[in-house]
């Protein structure tokens, strides 16, 4: 401060001494304001003056000693005393005043701890927290209905004869736990029985379950021991004669490579609805036994369908040397190539996971996703670019129990040409099927293919070779093709993929190798 300030302070002091009055605390604090190294905290004449040495209260400086600081210390001490009376000081690192009580006092009910003790599989920290929230959510629901003891009994005894444990079915059939949605029976079957469970397609309800998910009642059974996992059926080996007399007529499949495909919708007559969900079978979903749930197909499923039971060997083959050729599951169940119009783009994707998606996004390193948004093409035109923007979540492919399902996750329909699916429903082999958003379709069945293969072996090399077409499935995003569209061929659609089913193709290869060469000679003049 300037010397003027000091003189003012001294004059004030002399005046008070002459009058015989004692200085109040603020005046005493102001008394030393004229000394060196001090700063005034207020302008002169603006009320009580508080001063403190330079550097006091700053990091590394001495503690404040002015009256205001002493008052603050006294208030802090009083608060500390109250905190002590309320149960002691907070431990180091404890959350502040804004933290939630659940984080300050974490508490997991004993019943939740016991149920989590039966959890299958190992999860990371985030997944562990989510599992705990899922169990807490279920416990809260079951407490209201008095079914908590029955749940604990089912989990601890692992008995299929326990009662149904039900929760109310939501509007879309799914259960939301901490911003993640899923089908309730899938969530709790994955939690307590099969940690590698991917989809509801892998589950089938037991016969005694009265509230199974597929019954679509108001209550859904979440007892994990009321569901069983769909097992992959063992395909019988194909008996192949080493040398056969090839009949003149053989084709079990028509040649459709140059024909204009027919078109159909699946499910028939279903329009996209907002309440369709990815993991819930929509109306018209075709169950494993071949029955439609709500809608009838607009094509007969029996008319025109060939008998898929293997033909018995003819008497001429009885004395031949028959070699069994078995089916082997490959490491990669399918290979997927992406095309824009008639040009292939990018590398082939090899699917090893039983559930994977083909979408329009950009993740480069996920074994469960083939992301088309990453792929570049210097010849890409505006129509292709516009279509790519509408692929979105694309299509999810499941390979479960020897069956392949395609489920439309996109906001736009997908179009599928599957000869195996067409054979099942008695459609023309080149028929293109439209799958609306939220719907799914079984596009291949290993058992049906095995029956056709056993039947074709009796008809010769060419008949077996034609089955290679069944192992190729074409799928277009957003834009359809066929008789009802201006695009007549799949190579006219902007964005499409081609699936090669590796298991059936490798099986065909072994059968053809065992059969030898075809009887029809191929020469330069044939």
Automatic annotation (TrEMBL):
Domain of life, per lineage: Eukaryota
InterPro entries according to UniProt: Dwarfin (IPR013790), MAD_homology1_Dwarfin-type (IPR003619), MAD_homology_MH1 (IPR013019), SMAD-like_dom_sf (IPR017855), SMAD_dom_Dwarfin-type (IPR001132), SMAD_FHA_dom_sf (IPR008984), SMAD_MH1_sf (IPR036578)
CC terms in the record's Gene Ontology section: cytoplasm; heteromeric SMAD protein complex
Residues in MH2 domain copies: 333-526
UniProt GO BP: activin receptor signaling pathway; anatomical structure morphogenesis; cell differentiation; positive regulation of transcription by RNA polymerase II; SMAD protein signal transduction; transforming growth factor beta receptor signaling pathway
Transmembrane segment boundaries: none
Keywords for this protein: Cytoplasm, Metal-binding, Nucleus, Phosphoprotein, Transcription, Transcription regulation, Zinc
Subcellular location field: Cytoplasm; Nucleus
Comp. bias intervals (Low complexity): 28-37
Stretches assigned to the MH1 domain: 110-236
GO molecular function: DNA-binding transcription factor activity, RNA polymerase II-specific; I-SMAD binding; metal ion binding; RNA polymerase II cis-regulatory region sequence-specific DNA binding
SUPFAM superfamilies with a match to the protein in the record: SMAD MH1 domain, SMAD/FHA domain
PROSITE patterns: MH1, MH2
Annotated Polar residues bias: 267-277
Pfam families: MH1, MH2
Region described as Disordered: spans on this chain: 1-104, 267-309
PANTHER family: MOTHERS AGAINST DECAPENTAPLEGIC HOMOLOG 3 (PTHR13703:SF53), SMAD (PTHR13703)
Entry similarity comment: Belongs to the dwarfin/SMAD family.
Name of the featured protein: Mothers against decapentaplegic homolog
């Amino acid at each position: 401060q300037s010397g003027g300030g000091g003189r003012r302070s001294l004059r004030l002091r002399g005046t008070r001494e002459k009058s015989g009055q004692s200085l109040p605390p603020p005046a005493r604090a102001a008394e030393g304001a004229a000394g060196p190294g001090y700063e005034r905290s207020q302008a002169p004449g603006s009320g009580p003056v508080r001063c403190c040495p330079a550097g006091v209260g700053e990091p590394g400086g001495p503690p404040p000693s002015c009256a205001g600081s002493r008052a603050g210390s006294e208030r802090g001490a009083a608060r500390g005393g109250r905190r002590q009376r309320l149960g002691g000081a907070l431990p180091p690192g404890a959350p502040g005043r804004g933290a939630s009580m659940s984080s300050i006092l974490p508490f997991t009910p004993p019943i939740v701890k016991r149920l989590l003790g039966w959890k299958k599989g190992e999860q990371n920290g985030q997944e562990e927290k989510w599992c705990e929230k899922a169990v807490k959510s279920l416990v809260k629901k079951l407490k209201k209905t008095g079914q908590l003891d029955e749940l604990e009994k089912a989990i601890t005894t692992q008995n299929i004869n326990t009662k149904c444990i039900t929760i109310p079915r939501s509007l879309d059939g799914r259960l939301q736990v901490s911003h993640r949605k899923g089908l309730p029976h899938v969530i709790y079957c994955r939690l307590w029985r099969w940690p590698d469970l991917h989809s509801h397609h892998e589950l089938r309800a037991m016969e005694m379950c009265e509230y199974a998910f597929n019954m679509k009642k108001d209550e859904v059974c979440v007892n994990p021991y009321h569901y069983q996992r769909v097992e992959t059926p063992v395909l019988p080996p194909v008996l192949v004669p080493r040398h056969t007399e090839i009949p003149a007529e053989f084709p079990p499949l028509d040649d459709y490579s140059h024909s204009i495909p027919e078109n159909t919708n699946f499910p028939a007559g279903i329009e996209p609805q907002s309440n369709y969900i990815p993991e819930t079978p929509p109306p018209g979903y075709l169950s494993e036994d071949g029955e439609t749930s709500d809608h009838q197909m607009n094509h007969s499923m029996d008319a025109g369908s060939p008998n898929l039971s293997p033909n018995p060997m003819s008497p001429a083959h009885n004395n031949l040397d028959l070699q069994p050729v078995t089916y082997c599951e490959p490491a990669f169940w399918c290979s997927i190539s992406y095309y824009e119009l008639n040009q292939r783009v990018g590398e082939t994707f090899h699917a090893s996971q039983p559930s994977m998606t083909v979408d329009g996004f950009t993740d480069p390193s996920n074994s469960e996703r083939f992301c088309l948004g990453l792929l570049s093409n210097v010849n890409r035109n505006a129509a292709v670019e516009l279509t790519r923007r509408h692929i979105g979540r694309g299509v999810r492919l499941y390979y479960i129990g020897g069956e392949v399902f395609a489920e439309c996750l996109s906001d736009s329909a997908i179009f599928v040409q599957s000869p195996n699916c067409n054979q099942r429903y008695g459609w023309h082999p080149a028929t293109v099927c439209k799958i609306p958003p939220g719907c799914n379709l079984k596009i291949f069945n290993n058992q049906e293919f095995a029956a056709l293969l056993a039947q074709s072996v009796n008809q010769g090399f060419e008949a077996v070779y034609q089955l290679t077409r069944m192992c190729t499935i074409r799928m277009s995003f957003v834009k359809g093709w066929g008789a009802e569209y201006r695009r007549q061929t799949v190579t006219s659609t902007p964005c499409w993929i081609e699936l090669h089913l590796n298991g059936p193709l490798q099986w065909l290869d072994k059968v053809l190798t065992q059969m030898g060469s075809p009887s029809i000679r191929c020469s330069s003049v044939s």
